[in-house]
Amino acid sequence: MKENKCVVLGVTGGIAVYKALDIASSLRKKDIDVRVIMTKSATEFVAPLTFQAISQNLVTTDMFQEPKAWEIQHISLAQRADVFLVAPATANIIGKVANGIADDMLSTTIMATNAKVIFAPAMNTGMYNNRIVQGNLEKLKKLGYEFIEPDSGRLACGDVGKGKLPAPEIIVEKVMSELYDKKDLINKKVIVSAGPTRTDIDPVRFLTNRSTGKMGYEIAKEARDRGAEVILVSGPTNEKKPYGIDVIDVKTNEEMLNAIINHYDDADIVVKAAAVADYKAKEVSSQKIKKGDGDLSLDFVRDNDILMLLGKKKKNQILVGFAAESQNVIENAKGKLDRKNLDYIVANDITSKDTGFGSQDNRVSIISKNGDITTLEKMNKKEVARNLFDMIMEKR
Ligand SMILES: Cc1cc2nc3c(=O)[nH]c(=O)nc-3n(C[C@H](O)[C@H](O)[C@H](O)COP(=O)(O)O)c2cc1C
Predict the structure, then answer these.
(1) Which residue's C-alpha comes closest to atom 4 of ligand 1?
(2) Is position 184 within any domain?
(3) Gap from CA of 13 to ligand 1 centroid (Å)
(4) Do residues 98 and 56 lie in contact, with contact meaning Cβ atoms separated by under 8 Å?
(5) Does the active-site annotation cover 157?
(6) What CATH code is carried by the domain that includes residue 125?
């Protein structure tokens, strides 16, 4: 049986220790084997028992603690780690590792591991900006240690500034991305468009569509997890900003086109999952349109066909479109693929009640330019994204 992935979670003595409990819990729920090492200071904030109960593993706090395993524990944890996360990371642990100090279980195990070490620093702004701390961060970055940048905001001590531990889900997203097995998009640049666009009618009204952006966001995250540099051009959505992805927020068709074109020439793969408005109001009223007694008619004119323009400009990029169809799904999608010079088109039937817009799931067929049609069973959008990149990378 395949062994679960292991994250060694180093917990140091900062006020944000309580957030590390959520991190441990989320990782456990994803079937990760979580091994916690706490510094002595960390145990002043939260008892090891809490981490023990959440991780369902013994928590190590002391290098010389009994019972001693037949293996030397700091070596075995160092070897067992697939990813080594230190969250929260104090100024102290950063300083110790940067200067080769190994005087407790955590610093010694970090010194012994070959796994990727990710620090999530959290401290008072004054401490964070201290030149010694900044120097230590720079030194460790140069040596290949990774960092999750602290957030800015009001800190526990009352100061306002940089130094807050980011939300646990952001940290977990980063760790899960590191643990992802397929890294076949390293050194590739991927542009993804997602969500709807809007067309304004007057200062208070606009027209849009039912796209939630979920499919596009999953595609962007899949590309990131596989190692790509990802630019996500996003229409207005409620999706959370994903970790490690450059998100360009746009509203209109025109803004979406410009954002993609700016990065198109050096892109390797472009996936257009956005639901772009085909028409825009002929005139946008500068004043609110007042209600009258009669009906209201508005004129709309054709807006840019972004996919068509990208197809015409295409050089070596792999261009993938989406076709949301309500009838003759495959036939219409194939027509779009040919007309717009695409390499793949992902066709989905939007009349299905349990998939598509707003749903976690999708049921799609992926059609390639050589005519191959792969029809996938109903699956969640993350799995659709994985299948899409599997297909692109296999057939390259
Ligand atoms: C209430 C309290 C809160 C603290 N919060 C932080 C913090 O957020 N970040 C930090 O770097 N140090 C913080 N410290 C200081 C560390 O606990 C101290 O530097 C300690 O030596 C760190 O040890 P460790 O790195 O071995 O856990 C705090 C201390 C106290 C008493």
Answers:
(1) 14
(2) no
(3) 4
(4) no
(5) yes
(6) 3.40.50.1950
Indicate the DSSP class of residue 200.
Answer: E
* Within-domain flag for 172: yes
Please indicate, yes or no, whether residues 168 and 246 belong to a single structural domain of this protein. no
What 8-state DSSP symbol labels residue 363? -
> Of all atoms in ligand 1, which is nearest to the CA of residue 16?
8
Ligand 1 site residues, Cβ closer than 6 angstroms: 12-16, 39, 41-42, 90-93, 122-123, 127
353 is in an annotated binding site: no
Distance (Å) from CA 9 to ligand 1 centroid: 17
Task: Grade residue 1 by pLDDT with cuts at 50, 70 and 90.
Answer: very low
Quote the mean pLDDT of the chain.
Answer: 93
Yes or no: say if 373 and 330 are a contact pair by the CB < 8 Å rule. Answer: yes
Looking at the structure, tell me whether residues 302 and 282 fall in a common domain. Answer: yes
Same domain for 195 and 343, yes or no, is yes
- Within a 13 Å sphere around the CA of 92, how many CA atoms are in the beta-carbon half? 16
Between CA 97 and CA 113 the distance in angstroms is 12
- Residue 93's contacts (CB-CB under 8 Å, 6 or more residues apart) are 10, 12, 39, 86, 106, 107, 110, 119
Verify that 249 and 306 share a domain, yes or no.
yes
- Tell me the helices (H) and strands (E) count for the chain, helix number first: 14, 21
Active-site residue identified among 157, 160, 298, 373: 157
Contact 110, 10 (CB under 8 A): yes
Domain edge (last residue) among 126, 155, 179: 179
In the prediction, which pLDDT does 396 show?
Answer: 63
pLDDT at residue 2 is higher than 80: no
Distance between CA atoms of 201 and 364, rounded to whole angstroms? 34
Q: How far apart are CA 344 and CA 337, in angstroms?
A: 7
